Amino acid sequence: MIDKVLFWNIRSVRSQNAFERVTDLNRRHHYSYIALLEPFQSPFKLEYYRRKLGLPNAKVSSSAKIWIFWEENWEVEGSTDTTQQLTMNFKLKGTQFRFAITAVYARCSAIERLELWEDLEFIASQTAPWLVGGDFNTIVND
After folding, report:
1. Phi first, then psi: what are they for 115, rounded to 5°?
2. Which domains are seen in the chain, by residue range?
């Protein structure tokens, strides 16, 4: 099933030993899914970081602001990738269990976030279990 997941706005995989903290957390907790937001690194480096995490699969969003890593027992059945979110539809291998996980890196402007909410409303209409996490950039008085 969906065991342990991590959403982290890392704000650069190269700063303040941030990626080392992620790899240490993964060694201790054995995450099934990790979403890193704002990696501030070339998408061409994704494979290097995937190997360091020890997870067999990785995907970068079209905006390059979301990096996803997941375990081998999860089969991808599709994805939805927009400027503020990356949704992965998974099937647990050897079962009929299907689920979706959405990683969000929202725009700072409330007006620009309206597109995100429309995307999430559409994704919510699916019948599979769904987990959403990330950085919504919400300001209390926005």
Report:
1. -60, -40
2. 5-135 (3.60.10.10)
